[in-house]
Amino acid sequence: MATKVSEKQANAEADWRAGLSDDRLRELLYTMTLCRYFDERMEALYRQGRLPGAIYSGRGQEGTHVGVTVALRHDDSLFPTHRDLSAQLTKGLDLKRVMAQFWGRIDGYTRGRDGNSHIGDWRGNKTWTVMSHLPIAYPPAAGAALAYKRRGEPRVAMAICGDGSTSNGRWHEALNVSAIHRLPVVWVVNNNQYAYSTPNQLEMPVPTIAERASAYGMPGVRVEGKDVLEVYRVAHEAVERARSGGGPSLIESISLRWRGHAGHDPAKYVPKELLDEYVQNKDPVKRFQQLLVDKGVVDDEEIKRVEERVHQDFEAGYEFAQSSPFPVGDDVTKGLWVEDGYWSGEPSREGGTG
Amino acid sequence: MAQATVEAGAAGHGAEPRGKRTEDGQATYLVAIAEALWEEMERDDRVFLLGEDIGVYGGAFKVTEGFIERFGAERVMDTPIAEETIVGMSIGAAMEGLRPVAEFQYADFMTSGFDEIVTAAARYHYRSGVPIPIVLRAPSGGGVRASSFHSENPEPWFSYAPGLKVMCPAFPEDAKGLLKSAVRDDNPCVFLEHKWIYRRIREHVPDDPDFLIPIGRARVRREGDDLSIVTYGMMVHLALEAAEHLEREGISTEVVDLRTIVPLDTQTILSSVEKTSRALVLYESHRFLGTGAEVASVIAEEGFQHLDAPVMRLAPPNVPVPFSPTLEDAYLPQVADIAEAARKLSTW
To answer: Which residue of B89, B95, B98 is in closest CB contact with A122?
Structure first.
């Protein structure tokens, strides 16, 4: 199976909406707008010293994150990284609880046991709780897919990592085993061109990540992350192939990491011309907004209304986070073992569990 | 138990693990482990095995010989040589409701899957409330002339990772009962099988399919009054032999077998020390920061008022496990070393 650059990108005009209804497109507009605004505001709060911990901006990569995740059903599972908040929000995670997490509160998804985007919601939205060691979730995604296959369930696991993760042995191990057993899994690489400060050419000797798929006997597709609908189209094809027993696929979605690796990193190693090109010409959020206006799905007024709604939702999330209690310090040893019961109780307004 | 037959462990399903009990119904440690796996797979179809060469070949030590015929290749899954993925797949499958039991060919190779064990499996539940019911089985320990990469005792590494239960049984009965408990436990469990014991020690083992040994309980293997040897794994057998010699010299030795390292049964340890007032902590992991370092600390901190002598440790030095018989014998505590240490302690 040869690697292919997405042929359909050229034919995008023929079905510009990728099969999505106006309502779904409007939902996507809200999600894209939210993800961008969230990223910008959280960075501002971080710089003001009002946000504890760390932030890992996914700005400029929303087309990848939102596009691949929209292709999943509710009971499909998602295994993201710390840069993938846009994917987590798309999967359905609650903005309020996400923000409570950032401020270390009891209502955060980890109840203060982890911070920032190390979030997950397995019971609700089938989303893996993120860990720093990448791609640590790739093998578990194969394991979830193994369970779906064994039980004959029409479900799919999707794992996301960055280009940096493709240098790690686990990335190759997971692709290999998934192909051997034709597991229903989709491997997504958010190629934002930098592993922290290390550019693609120092990460790998081959021109694309997608072509590595052929070594594992699976389809590999390279797509431009600037077009969320094009990413969705490619992801939808891979997800449905997996769901129908066609085995795993690899998707490499190209974007640029607009900001540093984390909030402290000014990313001066990224050439200004490259950054300018992406910010000015390949902004997935602006391009999607413009597309919907051009196609008459929304007008400028509606774009503004969506932005206002996003602002309000962010403020509500912020207020919720600030009013959420800190977890009780004495509970620090609880939750280690299943049988201690900590996680079976709901968070109380005193910061414990009831 | 004399009537226990070669079908023991097969739970009456016709097929059976190929590793068999002896004519009089005794099971080696290895057979007891095979029976535990077999019975749990018969009981619960969510339980499945994965690992290297465990299917047709029956595993590096032949623990799973005969399993693939009974349970099929889906539940006895041969994997590529990819330890991170063996563990990681177990985690993902467990999150989706299966109960994976992964086999490592040697405990030494757990380092090749280390990150998925100590970062992913160990820390997942504390941060998410999602249970990760996996069992990682691995043959550990020295004494079989297998040199540096096939003799490791890695239990301290895993005991240091909060969120993992760690078991090191010394007897067939304990191995069977603890492994069955581990398979039924909702937390990730590291189950270390001492390869020196595999075919060396046999005894009568219950064949009740619901026979369990609780995780986290030590067992006094021999009662005594003059000193306690607190130990586990192969060293239990050496300690029991040393205790026989000491008995003839008039030194009454109690031997406490920890069985589980995490959670540590401090109560049984302290009760024994309260009775004997002297503690020799004997272990096969490295002396420096090995399992016994923690056990000795617990005794010193919580049992100080009962002690008539300083807590003594006996353990291998901090070098890799060597190959040559002269070197490995010098490395591992021997029966004579244990007896000598006990004499010294009893006269302190």
So the answer is: B95
Give residue B19's pLDDT: 77
Query: Which pLDDT tens digit goes with each residue over A44-75?
Result: 999 999 999 999 999 999 999 999 999 999 99
Burial B124-147 (b: 16+ CB within 10 A, else e): bbbbbbbbbbbbbbbbbbbbbebb
Averaged confidence pLDDT in chain B? 94
Mean pLDDT of B74-96: 98
Residue B245 bears catalytic tag: no
In a shared domain, residues B224 and B303: yes
Residue that is last in its domain, among B177, B204, B231: B204
CB-closest option in A114, A120, A146 to B89: A146
Domain containing B78 equals 26-204
Contact B172, B31 (CB under 8 A): yes
Is B118 in the same domain as B87?
A: yes
Contact A180 B80 (CB under 8 A): yes
Task: Pick the residue from chain A with its C-alpha nearest to B113.
Answer: A170
Chain B residues within an 8 Å CB radius of A337: 125, 163, 187
Domain with residue B271: its CATH number is 3.40.50.920
Distance from CA of B189 to the nearest CA of A (A): 11
B window 185-214, beta carbon within 8 A of A: 186-187
Which of A150, A245, A279, A111 has its CA nearest to residue B130?
A: A111
Q: Which residue of A has its CA nearest to B165?
A: A337
Q: Are residues B234 and B135 in the same domain?
A: no
Q: How buried is residue A301: exposed, middle or buried, by Cβ count under 10 Å (0-12/13-18/19+)?
A: exposed
pLDDT tens profile A91-115: 999 999 999 999 999 999 999 999 9
Is B92 in CB contact (< 8 Å) with chain A? Answer: yes
Residue A129 sits at the chain B interface (C-beta within 8 Å):
yes
CB count within 10 Å of CB A21 equals 10
Which residue pairs from A240-243 have beta carbons closer than 8 angstroms and sit at least 24 positions apart in sequence? A242/A145, A242/A156, A242/A183, A242/A184, A242/A185, A242/A186, A243/A154, A243/A155, A243/A156, A243/A184
**Contact yes or no for A144 and B95 at CB 8 A:** yes
Which CATH topology does A4-344 take? Rossmann fold (3.40.50)
The chain A residue lying nearest B91, using CA atoms, is A140
pLDDT given for residue A5 in this prediction: 59
User: Residue B62 pLDDT > 70, yes or no?
Assistant: yes
Which three-class secondary structure string do you get for A280-316? HHCCHHHHHHHHHHHCCCCCHHHHHHHHHHHHHHHHH
pLDDT in tens, B280-305: 999 999 999 999 999 999 999 999 99
How far apart CA A258 and CA A40 sit, in angstroms, is 11
> A148 and B96: CB-CB below 8 Å?
yes
Contacts of A139 in chain B (CB under 8 A): 84-85, 87-89, 91-92, 116
Tokens 């997405």 map to which residue? A6
- Name the band, by pLDDT with cuts 50, 70 and 90, for residue A354: confident
Contact status of A141 with chain B (Cβ, < 8 Å): yes
- Is A170 an active-site residue? no
